[in-house]
Amino acid sequence: MTGSATNLDTDSTTSTTSASQNSNSGSTAPFDSQSQYTGSVAAPRKEILTFVLPDEEGDDDRHALVPLPKTYDEAVACAIRVLGTYMGDATPSNIRLRSRIQDVQRKWIWADIDPENWQLLVSSGDNVGVFEKIRVPRGIHHFMHGEVFLSFGKKETQNRLVWSNVTQPANPPGRGLTYTLVGRPSKLIDAIQIIRALPMTSNVPYEWTEARKQVKDWTEEDWAEATSKIKFYKFVNPNLSTAVYQELPPIAYTNDDVWRVLVPMPGEVLGVVLPPKSEVLPFKSEY
């Protein structure tokens, strides 16, 4: 026991002497961080969400990792930013987010998310599906070519349009007859070109006479002004009726894929409303 005590005293004396010598020599003993502090600070936990753009025709889903959004609207904007190039209509109003969960039968399903309770329902590490409310095929290869009937509308009252008659081909076709048929336009610019060709067409159907008269004196400047004001319509048209109509949505004018989905199918009626003369030619004389 005495030897042990002596050893401890010797070690203590040696340590003290060494520290004293270092102090006297003006040097400082090196600081050993490990002997002073052995703990570590954990790295902040990453909060990451996986967006999934399902391939409804196969197994080629697309995925994207993003920081966990704080709100549903923020998540929609984020989904469009990272996956919008693969969508036909990547606008917020056309996007629906769904969570990947298992139902009571242990099958994996996509469940709609309540936007008001985003933070309660969605956590880091979850898979969130990105769906288009109206699925828009991308590319001209989906487009169905053919002919549509063209009808021009004008305002009769504030809320009512009247439309030019639709002429159907006879069976068999009669010689010299003209029909209100045009090639189904695959994009807005094609539809505008059909209207622009009216003044240069010699055999214009009688039903288009008034529209032709309206645009015959338009200059390039007039067309540039009028193009954004020309509106197109589709019809709920049993027997080619123009009684019930609906304007194509604004995105159809800027997104060719949306236009190709919504423009009337071959054999149906495409409605056109030209802007009033006062909006295009305010300083020109009457026709």
TrEMBL record:
Positions of the UniProt region annotated as Disordered: 1-39
What segments bear the compositional bias annotation Polar residues?
30-39
The biased composition feature labelled Low complexity covers: 1-29
Q: Which domain of life is it from?
A: Eukaryota
From the Swiss-Prot or TrEMBL record, give the protein name: Uncharacterized protein
